Request: fold
Amino acid sequence: MRDVPNAQRTRRRPLAGIALLLLAAVLAGCFGSRPGAGTFGLQGVVVADGAGDAPIAGAVVRVGDLETISGDDGAFSLPQVPVDGATMTVTAVAPGYRSATVLIQPAPGQQLFITVRLLPLEDGDDGGSGDAPPPMGNGAVEALVRLVNAPSGTSAAGAAGARPASIGSAGRLEEELRAAGASRSVVRTAAATVPGQWIVQMNADYPVQAVQDMWAAAGVHVLERLADNFYLVAAPEGASPLETELRLAQLPNVVSVEPNRQVYPVAVPTPNDPYFDQQWSLPLISIPYAWGVTTGSRDVVVAVLDTGLLPQHPDLAGVNIVHGRNFASGQSATNYTDDATDVSHGTMVAGIIAAAANNARGIAGINWNVSIMPVRVMSSRSGGTVAAVGQGIRWAVDNGAHVINMSLAWDAAYNDTFVNQQIEYAASRGVVLVAGAGNDSGRVTMPASHPDVIAVGAVDRHKQAAWYSNYGPELDLVAPGGDTRRSRLDGVLSTNLTSGSAVYSYQQGTSFAAPHVTGIVALMYSAGITDAQEIRDLLRYTAEDLGAPGFDHRYGWGLVNAYAAVTRSDPIHALVGVAAADGSHVWGPVHPQRQGGQAVARVEGLVPGRHTVFGWIDAYPDGLMGPGDFAGLAEVAVPEDGTVSVDLPLAIWDTLPAADQSRLAALIHR
Amino acid sequence: MWRNHTVRARRPAALRWDWRLLFILGGVGALMTGAGMGAGKGAGETVTGPGWPGTAPPVAVALSVEPLATGDEPRYLFVLGAMATGEETAVVTFRNGQTYDFVVVQDGEEIWRWSQGRVFHQAIQQRRWPPGELVIFTAVWDGRDAAGRPVTGTVEVHGTLTSDPPLAAEAVTLRLP
Reply:
């Protein structure tokens, strides 16, 4: 964004600086001793920008809760920094320089080296970011930041959106504009612009009646009024971009001028399986977007404790099925195949998790690559025993399972020490256990009700709690389980067996909600998220809150969100700001704090009026707001004195309306 | 002890097809006919099962309890019979893999339940029962409570089709030595 000299204009702490400085950051190499588990090492230097990289001594460098001071050579070191999300901010402050923020994407065990460049303070600079502080008031906003999946009914094929890039003009332009006094700072990124188009933001005093004359004077015409005081304008073909931009920047009442950004489809893999478009349950929980991060790994082993399965089903034939076991009656210990001739429950469950994808046949499993460990603990005909489940858990853990799915249940009133011990053994070994909450429209059944098991209830395709789904304080999450009362198409489609033949069928039940979560856990594993507690926390905090705000007995923490989970998009990592309606001031940004399981961002010191609250999670960690990120905005009326609460849902960028995308891009880059 | 018993109950094939079973099935059929619910009854009526929760399926159920002579230990055979009552196929919904249950009650307290310690899948299933087809579910009880203690005196045996909604047969009183 290019800020225009204007007597009425004030400046804010910019998010733009974050994007700029990320690009300036140099992430490199290994050094020193390796950090411990869950931490990374951070080293770097603080230098003066534009002064031959002269080192800055005494700069305070902060990351997370840690801070250090740069030495005489500008170097600093933080050898053991806890990893706190996919993206963390490093701030550096030094007397005589503007503070700077650098975004990093640490991973446990990683060694990062960064260079932080600080700009010397200019006359009248406030030292924060080059901006004058926004006007102070007594109002405050508390934004409840939560994530949402794609709207229900969105098809996977239609999920792809548009990606605006960021300003991408050359440094020479900045110099010329500086010389013309038209800008104090320009954000540079590597992304392309749309030639001949700009987004212009006006202040509240702009003459609406005369605006057309104003555009004509600048040699542009309006393509679209984006929202309120934002205009998308274009110059005639052949016009000089530099001259046009300068003219726009010098118009009265203009707050900012930003080149429009290139739009191109986001990469959402669409498998060629012919029934994929009938798998409504996958886009409902953002799985196609998660596929943009990972489609799974054969190194991840998912144990399916069930009725056995049919490995010869055409959509399972290509799946890596590892050595399994039978603990149910009627078959040998090594025979894990389902003896059913009609309806193979285990085959349905396994298909949701792992049916071969992009093979031009049948359905797509949540994992395109994964290893399935069939552990037969019950019969399709007569059920099984709690003892067999306990044996199956133990065997799966001892034979390398990372995740255990249990689409089965028994009465929670029946307390069996043996199976409880096996569940706790699995948890102690870092294995993630997932179970359906049960179909009784009553209390959550075992094993889902065990504290070490992720209890999964069911919703229909409209994100409503399914008529049969159990509920209660033990419920963790909900996932698609289907409701075929009106139409079989509203069931969950998966691999099955009818009259001895391999088929596909629609089913309903928490049996089919659980494997959606299990499949997502497997994706998380393949994305490098392997700590069981972190997996559980991420699933909870990234879920789409349904029902009563926060945790409730009907929906638990909400509807699982695959993309948010695999990108570690915990809402407390959001950047939240408040912008005046005319865009002239931005307060913040701040990070939300966890309050009772919810992420609440409090922005204080606001003047009264109608403002825009906006938030962003850099889920696609490139330092730029765009496709793959979570973002959202909401309007709020801030009182003269006091706090106003607002719901701030953050959706995947690609699902946002174009007007919201444009407005967010303009706000976030301030 | 009950767990051992459960293993027996899961294997109805262990029942020998002898005169005792014929007698029992005959008893169930007689119960249903006596209740006016047998196949062929209800001519002129068309009753179809909605197959969805909240509405009872057009199915009649009856319970029979018979002692088995299996040596020193007492054994009791529970048989739950179910039959579609109308002239059309009944569609019966089950909320999970369980389709029936037996419960023994003494002095108002449950002392044994067939499904205790059993695990069922959590897929909602529908079964279609043509009119006149008798479906039976069996279990063998060893005369002990859930803790494995021998039970004496009078007990009530309950048999239930665990459909949605469940259909309970008339309880049978059993006097134990």
Summary: The mean pLDDT of chain A is 83. The interface with chain B takes residues 306-307, 329, 343, 345, 348, 377-378, 380, 382-389, 407-411, 414, 416, 436, 438-441, 467-468, 484-485, 507-512, 514 of chain A (CB under 8 Å). The longest strand of chain A covers residues 641-652. The longest helix of chain A spans residues 510-526.
